[in-house]
Amino acid sequence: MFVYKISVKTGQFDIIRSSILSITPDQRLQMLIVGFCFGAFLEGAAGFGAPVAITAALLVGLGFKPLYAAGLCLIVNTAPVAFGAMGIPILVAGQVTGIDSFEIGQMVGRQLPFMTIIVLFWIMAIMDGWRGIKETWPAVVVAGGSFAIAQYLSSNFIGPELPDIISSLVSLLCLTLFLKRWQPVRVFRFGDLGASQVDMTLAHTGYTAGQVLRAWTPFLFLTATVTLWSIPPFKALFASGGALYEWVINIPVPYLNKLVARMPPVVSEATAYAGNDSNLLIVFYVQIMPDGLVMQLHRF
Predict the structure, then answer these.
(1) Are 114 and 148 in contact (CB under 8 A)?
(2) 58: closest CA among 87, 19, 90?
(3) Which of 35, 54, 226, 263 is surrounded by the fewest CB atoms within 10 Å?
(4) Nearest to residue 120, comparing CAs of 99, 151, 141, 150?
């Protein structure tokens, strides 16, 4: 949400909105592009709540109500969430059960493709009822079908780490190309359900590819950063005993640090949890200097 507010403050979100509206002004299809395709990519790259937070913020800027956007993103995240960030849930399931994680990923990849298409039709029904399903089913079939096929193939022949990333990119490409040839007869917008032309001026403002890339850069940078942080070898550098552990700043959280303990038989002896969090420094800076930070970013 912080990155979203920076984009709005600097005027870059108008370009982001325009780049999406140039594909389609229909908010049902915007949900497929942003909430499903881009959200699935973030789930595979980052996971741990980041996909819902980032995609919901983007949808809010496109005219969705905040709580409604978050709810829709949570529902549509059902399709990719089983594989999580870099296949971590599948890998952990293999470690806990003793079953080969590749075999678990294969079985998941044989079940989820059917759920993917069902969930997308469900989202259309939530947003616009049966009429929404009738008007958008070609786009749903393209987005869900391409995602399902790529998910099945990648999980059964590559491994559990990349199905979400591969499937989301394939789905995004197929859906974008399809929408260049096809659009629903009625444009659906919240608050103006009968509109046929909405915000079309924003979709044809003539932004260059460089301007669009610059506007998306904060979200791309956030995605790349969280992806890097999710890679086990990189995380190991900052873990206890890692090469860069001495650079980690840990601040004991008052009324939490060492006040909760793990007890036998989970552990051999009572061990207190360390309540340390370096995010307090970030929160402190963001709360004190938001305007200054925005102005500095706007210069670039």
Answers:
(1) yes
(2) 19
(3) 263
(4) 141
Positions of the chain with pLDDT under 50: 193-203, 284-291, 295
* Alpha-carbon distances of 128 from 71, 92, 190, rounded to whole Å: 15, 38, 10
Nearest Cα residue to 170 out of 138, 144, 140: 144
Kindly report the pTM of this predicted structure: 0.67
d(CA 117, CA 82) in angstroms, rounded, equals: 15
- pLDDT computed for residue 190 by the predictor: 77
Q: Which residues pair with 262 in a beta bridge?
A: 271
Rounded Cα distance between 200 and 128, Å, is: 21
Q: Where are the domains of the chain?
A: 1-231, 249-299
Separation of alpha carbons 54 and 241, rounded Å: 32
Backbone angles phi, psi at 158, to 5 degrees: -110, -55
- What phi, psi does 136 have (nearest 5°)? -115, 5
